[in-house]
Amino acid sequence: MLSYQNMNENQRRLYDEAKEANRSGWLDLRHNEIGDAEAQAIAEALKVNTETNTILQGTLRSLMMCDNRIGDAGAQAIAEALKVNKSVITLYVEGNQIGDAGAQAIAETLKVNTTLTVLDVSDNQIGDAGAQAIFEAIKVNPTVTFIDLHTNEIGDAAAQVIAEALKLNKTVAKLRMDLNQIGDAGAQAIADALKANTSLTALSLGRNQIGTAGALAIAEALQVNKTLTSLYLQYNCIGNVGVEAIDEARKVHGTSEVSISDQINPLAFSLLPRLATAEDLQAVFCLLISGSELQDQSASLPVLPPELAERIMDEAHYFQGVQHTKRSQFSAAFFGLALNVTLPRNSVRVKSIQVLRDCRASLDEIAFDVNIRDDQGAVRYECAAKPAFVESTIQLVTICPASHPFLRQIRESWQVQVQPSKVSANLRFESLYVGYV
C-alpha cells in the first residue's frame, strides 16, 4: 500500500484531486502525463473514499484517464481499488499502455464489482490473453453494458472466447472491437453467438481482417437475431458476395444501421511482415556462405562475427521473442491526420515498419513521408519511403534495419509517424504497421 507520506509531490496532487472530485461526481485526468506511479496514488484515493470518508463516499461516478502513460502496474492498482470502491460506474482508460497483465487485473475486478457499467480500454496493447480474461469475467458480471476494445491486438482466439461470453451474458448492449486483427474464424464465432444473444444492440467490427466467409456467417446470424440494430463492418476485406448477403439479411432483419462500404483489397492483409523462424535463419546463413553442406551437419553453427550476425538477423527479420504489431489506420473520416504508432514499454527492438495504401483508382508513385520521434516528441529520423506497386491500386513500403539502420536506435515510447497523404481524396485507406519484439 502506498501511503500519503511516501508519495512525491505530483502523486500527492493527484491523490488530493481524486478525493476532491468526489464532490463533483467525476474526475477528468485526460492528457495529464499520468504513469504507473501516479495511477497508484489515484487508486489509493479511491480506496480511502470508500473505506473511511462516509460523507463523500459514493459520489464519484466517472473516472477518465485517457491519453496518458498508464501501463500494467497502474491498471492493476486501479483495478484493485475498484474491488472496494462501489461508486464508480464509468471507467475510461483509452490511449494508454495497458497490456494483457493489466487487462487480466481488470477482469478479476469485473468478477466482484457490481457498479461499473462502462469499460473503455481502447487504444492500448491488449492481446488475446487480456481480452479473453475480460470476457471470461463478463460471463458472470451483471452490470457492464458497454465495452470498448478498439485499437488493440485482439485476434481470432480471443474473438472465439468473446463469442462464448456473449452467448451467456445478458447485459452488454454495445461492443466496439474495430481496428484489431479479427479474421473470418473470429467473425464466424461471433456470428454464432449472435444467434443466441438477446442483449447486444450495437456491434462494431470495422477495420479488422474479416473476409467473405465471416460476412456470410454474420448475414446468416442476422436472419435469426432479433435485437441488433447497429452493425459496423467497414474497411474489412469482404467481397461482393459477402456484401450482398449482409445487405439482404439487413432487409429481412430490419437492422436500422449497417455500414459495410469501402472494403479493402484482400491482398493487403496477406502482405504483413512475418517473424522468421530459426529455420529461416539457417537458410539465410547457408545462402550467405554460398554452401548448403552445413544443413546436414548435426554440429552447432560456428560463432559469427557480430557485424555478420547483425546483418543476418536483419535480412531474415529474425528476433528472439514474440512479434507484436501495432496498427494505425487512415480513412476519409480522419482526413488530414497523421498515422501514429507509439512503441510500448518493454518493446525490445523494431523488426520492420510497413505502410500500405489502398486506392480507389490507379495512382502514380507517391512516397510515404515517415518520421520517427523520441519520447520527448523531437524528430530523430525522417525519410521519404518509395512505395512498390503490388497491384494497380495497392502501394506498399517496408522499412527494415538492413536498409534503414536508424531503426536499431528506436526505444520504447518512441513514435513512428506517417504524414497525411497528398492523395487522400482517392484513398480507400492507409495503414501503418510497426512490428517489434
From TrEMBL:
Q: Which organism is it from?
A: Capsaspora owczarzaki (strain ATCC 30864)
The alphabetized UniProt keywords are: Repeat
Kindly provide the name given to this protein in its UniProt entry: NOD3 protein
Which InterPro entries does UniProt cross-reference here? Leu-rich_rpt, LRR-containing_regulator, LRR_dom_sf
